[in-house]
Structure formats: C-alpha cells, structure tokens
Amino acid sequence: MSDPVFFAAQGGLTLADVAAASGATLPEGADPAYRLTGAAPLESAGPEHLAYMDNARYGEALVVTRAGACLVSPRFAARCPAGTVSLVSRDPYRAYASLLGRLHPDAMRPGSQFGGRSIAPGAHVHPDARLEEGVTVDPGAVIGPGVEIGSGSVIGPNAVIGPGVRIGRDCSIGAGTTLSHALLGNRVILHPGARLGQDGFGFAMGATHLKVPQIGRVIVQDDVEIGANTTIDRGASRDTVIGEGTKIDNLVQIAHNVVIGRHCVIVSGVGISGSTTLEDYVVLGGQVGVVGHLRIGRGAQIAGSSNVNRDVPPGSRWGGTPAKPVRAWFRELTTLARLAERSGKDAEKDPAPDAE
After folding, report:
1. Domain parsing of the chain, residue ranges
2. 301-302/317-319 β-pairing
3. Tens of pLDDT along 324-345?
4. DSSP character for 74?
5. How far apart are CA 48 and CA 69, in angstroms?
6. ∠ at Cα 265 (95, 323), nearest 5°?
7. What percent of the chain is helix, strand and coil (3-state, nearest 5)?
8. What is residue 95's three-state secondary structure?
9. SS3 call for 211
10. What pLDDT, on a 0 to 100 scale, did the predictor assign at position 288?
C-alpha cells in the first residue's frame, strides 16, 4: 500500500522570512537565505525543517533535535543545539501556527473532496439558487431555491443547503452538513456532519406536549469555525447568534435563542441551553453544561466538566458542579480530600468487627 502525504509543503521559507514573520532576530552567523522546505516536530525534524518549542515537557527533545531552525521561548533558547538556528519568540506556538499556514495553505480550510473547481456532476442545484463565480459544489450536494453562495466557497459532498440560506465568500461547508434557516458570513468553516438551523427543543408541557413553532434563524458571523457533528438550533422567536471569530469544537449542542459573542472558544461536548448569552472572549472547557437564560460575562473561563447554573461575572474563572469561583472550588476539593483521608485513617485504627 502506498503512503500518501496529504499536506505537502508548498514552496518554502527562508530564515529571513521566518524571522520577519515571528518578530525574531536572526542570531549572528545565521544565513538569512537558508531555505526551510517544511515543518516537523522536534524529534523527527531534519535540517530542512522548522520546529517550535515552548513547553518544558519537550526539553530533552529540543536538546537533540536536528531541525534547521526552531522557534523557541526565551527561557529555552540556551537549550537549542549548535546545528539548529534558535529564533527566540515571546509566543513560539502562535508564530509557528502562522508560518505553518504559509507552508500548507491547503490545510487552513477543507477543500473539495472531489477535487473539483465548479459544480460537479451529481450535484443538485435549484434553478432559483444564486451562486457567484468560483463556487465549488461536490457530488450529491443539494442546494435549495433562493440560496445565495459567495465566490470561493466550497460545498462538500451530500451537504444539504435549505431554501433561502445565505453563505458568504470563502466558506467551507463539510460533507454531510445540513443548513436551514441560516445566514453565514465570510470565511466560515463547517466541518462534516454539522447541523445548523433545525428546530429548537420547544414544547408547552402538559398532559400532552404542544410543539412551539421555532420561527427564528441562525446567524453565523465572519471567521467562525464549527466542528464536526455540532448542532446549532435556530431561534424560537429571536435569532441564535454565533459571533465573529468564535471557534466551536466537535460534538457541541447550542440551543435556540443562544447568543455567543465574538472570539469565544467552546470545547468538545459542551451543551448550552436556550436563551443563554455568552459575552465576548468566553472560554468553555470540554463537557461544560450551561442551563438556560444565563449570562456568562466577557472573558470568563469555565473549567471542563463544570455545570453552570447561575450568571458568571466578567473576567472570572469558575469550575465545579455546580460551578463556582475557582478558589472556592479548590477549597471544596481540598476539604473533601482531607475528610476522605481522615476517614480512611480512622477506619484503619478501628476496623469493623468480623461478622459472626
């Protein structure tokens, strides 16, 4: 069986390119024209590769790396071996990410799975849909009446774009994705299996549960990325909104009328109940649960597996079930650990009598 390389580096970068992009200063004696043709981890990098290091766990790998150049934080710069050009950066990981995007532009967003550059055979595009020049539609995709799609966007195989949906420019809509009652900005990425715009879970409870029509929309602003198999319900009467630059991981559930601010980070397994608001720059760790009708303030961070059942002030860090400020949470955990330890020692001193 052949061993394909899915993301081959395109072109290359000189040390001068790397230094300029990262804000680093080339050390004395380094050749600015030296060309790096790819990037690799410390342990497998060769003289043609760029690597990075900003974590003490990888100190031993840095000492023996064969990388041609390494982006490194100041505290680890002295550990670079003599054969590796040390490029000191305050944020090596961010600099590396930017340069990796230049080496592998095709990895920045999903492209056509069919290798196409237009409307492929087997795609179903309604005659009333409006697609700008340069839209790619893979086989099996269904695009409904009144849909508008901007140039440079890619619609993956078997994606379904419902009537009236708007998709901006340079978007990537993954395989098997479904979109209805939704408006997407520019440069939005939806990974395979994402579901946007389906009914919110709304019922008037009683002896029989009466369905409440969900007549809102989903609004996704520019530069949002949404992971595989994530679901975002349309609003009941107001819109569900995902703010500019927000990044949402796989397997997240966002309910109707939720408003998420700009540049939030929502990690896998999170569930956000209806009509909750996240202000800008909020971070929710994996498997966080948020009950409905709450407000999580700007820049707040919630630890993974926490359960949020009340409003969270801006800039705070909370964790636990129910979630609380981290200092209170840590005191609680410490107290429980001491009680458990004490209980175990007491049991050793006074073992239970043998049953007769």
Report:
1. 13-107
2. parallel
3. 999 999 999 999 999 988 887 7
4. G
5. 8
6. 130
7. 15, 25, 60
8. helix
9. strand
10. 98
What is the distance, to the nearest Å, from the Cα of residue 153 to the centroid of all Cα atoms in its chain? 20
- In CATH terms, the fold of domain 13-107 is 3.40.1390
Written as one string, the DSSP assignment of 30-48 is --TTPEE-EE--TTT--TT
pLDDT tens for 238-294 read: 999 999 999 999 999 999 999 999 999 999 999 999 999 999 999 999 999 999 999
Of all residues in the chain, the percent with pLDDT exceeding 90 is 93
pLDDT, averaged per 10 consecutive residues of the chain (356 residues), comes to 89 95 94 97 97 95 98 95 95 96 95 95 98 98 98 98 98 98 98 98 96 97 98 97 98 98 98 98 98 98 98 98 97 92 75 60
Residues identified as active-site: 256
DSSP-assigned beta bridge partners for residue 211: 203
Cα(238)–Cα(247) distance, rounded to whole angstroms? 22
On whether the CB atoms of residues 322 and 308 are closer than 8 A, the answer is yes
Any idea what the Cα angle at residue 6 is, between residues 108 and 132, rounded to 5°?
45
Task: State the CB neighbour count (10 A cutoff) for residue 279.
Answer: 19
**Sheet of strand 324-325: strand arrangement:** 136-137, 154-155, 172-173, 189-190, 225-226, 247-248, 265-266, 283-284, 301-302, 317-319, 324-325
